[in-house]
Amino acid sequence: MKRLLAEVSNRLVNRQEIVNQTGLAMLAGQHVLLKGPPGIGKSMLASLLLGGIKGASVFKIQLARDMSPDYIFGPMNLQKYRTQAIVEHNTKGSLVDCHFGFLDELFDAHPGLLRSILEVLNERTFSRNTGHVQRCPLISVLATTNYYKPEMATDAVMDRFLVRMEVNGQLSQADQVKMFQQSLDRTPMKRMSFKHFQAARRSVKKVHVSTFTLSYVAEFLDSCQDAYQVISPRRRVWCLDLMKAHAWLRGDNVVTAIDLAALCWAIVPMGSNPADFWKKLENVSKKMGAEDAIYNNVRGAENLLGKFRRAFKTKKADPRWLSEVSQNLIRLEAYYMGLASKSLGAELDERVKGITDTIETLRGQATDALRERATDGDSGRTDNERRTGGGGRTRRSVRRGRIFVS
C-alpha cells in the first residue's frame, strides 16, 4: 500500500498529503470528498488511486442535475413496476455492485438523488423500499466537487464523507517544472492487487486500541468540537478506524498519540484553518505521551517474556543463558512490581499483573534448571574421580578381551 501511495504521489505535484489521507480512508473503509476549482487534478488523483488496485471493480460517474437514481443504482424494471408496483433495479455494474465508487461533481446532482444514496454509503445495503435488502461490497467512495453550499438537504450527505479536503491549485515555478516533466513521462504505473489490498484492510482491523487511548481520543474530540463543529457519534467511531489505518501504515499494531494526526481533515471543516487542531493535538499528546511510554514498555516486556518462554525449551541446558535470563528477570521484576503498586487503569493493571506472574514463573523455572544442572555436574565429577582414583588421566586398553583402566 505504501508503494501505491508513493507511486501516485510521484505522478502528482504537491499532493502527497492528500494522497496519503485518501489512502488512509480507503484502508479504513471510509469515504473522501475533494473540493477545489476545475483543472487542479482532483479527478486524476481519484482515478490513479482507484485504478492502482488491480482486480477491484470501480463505479465511475459524472453527476448532473437532471440525473435520476437509475444512473446510480442501474435501470429500473419498468414492467415489474407497472404490473406489481415494485421498484426493482438491475444493479449489475452500478454503485451497489462495485468495490469502489468515483462520484465526480457530487453537488451538481439533485439533492433528492444524493439523499437516495445515503443507505448505500453508510449501511452498505440497498433496499429501495422493496422489502429485499441487498448487501453491497462497497468499500470506499471518492467524490469531487468544485463548490459546496451548506443546506439541510446535503448535510446528511456531507456527514457520510469522513475525510473532506480542499485542494489548493497554486503551484510554484519549481512545482510547475516538475508537473511538465511528469506530463512527458509515459511509464506505466505499478499497481497492487485487490487481494493484497483486502489483506491490508484485515490487518488494519486487528490494530489494537487501548482503553486509556480511547479516553484520550474522546477528550480530544470534545475539545475539537468546541473549536470547529459538532462531531456526530457516527463520525467519532469512524475516527478510530482512521487512526488504526494510520498506525498500521506506519508499521505499528497499536494506536498511539501520533495517530491522532490522521484526524485533521476528518474534524477541520473544508476551508478552515487547522491551527487550533494542531494546538489541541499537542496538548493531548503530552498527556498521552507518558502513558504511551508505559504501554510501550508493557508491550516490550510481554514480547521479551514470550521469547524467553519459547527459548527455554531448547536453551535450559545452557547455564550461561540461564544466568543471563535470571538477571534480566530480576531487573524486570523490580520495575513491574513498582508499576503494580500504581493504578494505571483496568487494562494496564491486568497486563502488568500478568507480566509479574510470568516473571515469577520463569524465575522459578530458571532457578530449578540451574540447580538441576549443578547437581548433574557434581555427580559427574564424583563418578570420574571414582574411575580415575583422584582425577588423573584415563587410559583404556584391551588385553585378552578385558578392559583395563590405568
Describe this structure in words.
The longest helix is centred in the C-terminal third of the chain and has 43 residues, at 346-388. This protein has 406 residues and is of the alpha/beta class. Mean pLDDT is 81; it is low at 391-406. The chain contains 16 helices and 11 strands. Helices cover 57% and strands 10% of the residues. The strands form 4 sheets. Strands 3-4-7-1-8 form a 5-stranded parallel β-sheet. It folds into 2 domains: 2-197, Rossmann fold; 290-386.
How would you write the strand order of the largest sheet? 3-4-7-1-8
CATH homologous superfamily of the largest domain? Answer: P-loop containing nucleotide triphosphate hydrolases
Give me the number of helical elements: 16
Oligomeric state of the chains?
Answer: single chain
* Percent of sequence in beta strands: 5-15%
Which structural class best describes the helix and strand composition? alpha/beta
| Reported CATH architecture of the largest domain | 3-Layer(aba) Sandwich
Helix content: 55-70%
Major sheet description: 5 strands, parallel
Give the C-alpha Rg. 32 Å
Along the chain, the helix and strand elements come as HHEHEEHHEHHEEEHEHEHHHHHHHEE
Global mean pLDDT: 81
What's the structural domain tally?
2
The CATH topology annotation of the largest domain reads as Rossmann fold
Instruction: Give the distance, in angstroms, between the N- and C-terminal Cα atoms.
Output: 74 Å
* Weakly predicted, low-confidence segments: 391-406
CATH class membership of the largest domain: Alpha Beta
Approximate shape: elongated
Total beta strand runs? 11
